[in-house]
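User: New here, please read:
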Amino acid sequence: RRFEREDDASSQGRFMPQTCPINVSISRHGHLIGLGKANVIIVGEENGVSSTVVPVSSTIKKVSSRYKSSIPIPMIKIKGDDLMFGLKSDAMLRVLVSVSKVQTPEKDVVENPKSF
């Protein structure tokens, strides 16, 4: 993605923040199970390598049962498996962000400025 600069005069040439959605899944017996989603905010001022922690929201629907569950966390089970999977309400995801300059051929930049 390209970062656009903020139009506001008070922004001092900062970039407009962008949201990068991340799906949190687990793979088990050839099945990919979605557990939750996280949104990483990228402001365009990052440089080098850094890590950040973002909250994860569960995408597992709580299924009501006629039996009272002793597990307060919404869980999902794969058919034919003994294990159940879920995320706590305060689940966090540590994301490693590595920033590097994009190497572009100067010829293409001059001839095709809209190709990016």
Remarks:
- The chain is about 5% helix and 40% strand.
- Strands lie at 18-28, 31-42, 49-58, 75-77, 84-86, 92-98.
